[in-house]
Design goal:
The chain is α+β, with helices and mostly antiparallel strands. The protein is 55% helix and 8% strand. The protein is built from nine helices and four strands; from the N terminus they run H-E-H-E-H-E-E-H-H-H-H-H-H.
Amino acid sequence: MLRENHLKDTMSLTIKLYYWPGACSMASQILLADSGLAYEAIKINLQDPPARAEYMRTLNPKGQIPTLVIDGEIITEGPAVITAISQLVPEKCYTGSTPMENVRFYEWMNFLSGTVLTKSFGGLFKPSWYSDDPSAAEGIIAKSKVNISAGFQLIEDRLEKLSDPTHALGHSLTGVDAYLAVFITWANRFQIDISKYPNYRKLFDSISRTAAFKAAQEKQV
């Protein structure tokens, strides 16, 4: 584990999270707020060419957020960032509290980051990621909304099978919950009707009432 190898004293760590308001980096901010770890949140504007170039040169050549830096160790990609945070505070069980929950965590995260984020919301945020033809934007946006509906229905169906749909894994906050909560904030931003997903709404209502969510939300400006 990261903690066992070279992060034995979390009180002495230098932790930095590079983020952009309203982006998927909010999920990492929710967990960091809940963890009690001291960290520095650094806003990076990837729409500013000089800032983006410097960020890619020194931190993340993929030009994406979040990027987590722990005592100089650079960690990219949301699921990896959440795993690193979890390893700093293993008692929080942000990636699940049992071996099977840990498997389910990565099952969820691959779906959320690879399908719901990239294949769905990505087309709403920036259609040009998917085509250089400006005339294709309308079709990309329309298809993205179809994909979001399909993804949200899969999430709803999965949560419906749980005895406690207020958490995706077990009965406490995990990285999956944090990501799911962020996606609802995006749905609200794009005026996507979430009334068809009552269990998903229960999860969001539960997470959004937490102090960690509220603390992270304050940084989304």
